[in-house]
Design goal:
There is one protein chain. The protein is mainly alpha-helical and about 60 residues long. It has a domain of about 40 residues. It is built from 3 helices and no strands. The longest helix has 20 residues. The protein is flat, with a radius of gyration of 16 Å.
Length: about 60
């Protein structure tokens, strides 16, 4: 689903569907907030949300 389709869905969504989406987003945010290294004391430029090694990325590689 692309962002435009998702936007159209949100415009027509029923209250129950929006409540479900809010629960899903809250679960995602809770997961991100409780991951090791995601606290303010561990924060750096990427805010601790993603770890290059965990994603299989080479931090030295140019991302262009």
């Amino acid at each position: 689903m692309d962002i435009r389709t998702f936007g159209k869905f949100l415009e027509r969504a029923e209250p129950e569907e929006l409540r479900y989406l809010c629960r899903v987003f809250r679960m995602i945010l809770d997961y991100c907030a409780t991951r090791p290294g995601s606290g303010p004391e561990d924060s750096d430029d990427d805010m601790g949300l993603f770890d290059a090694d965990e994603l299989g990325l080479d931090p030295e590689e140019d991302m262009d």
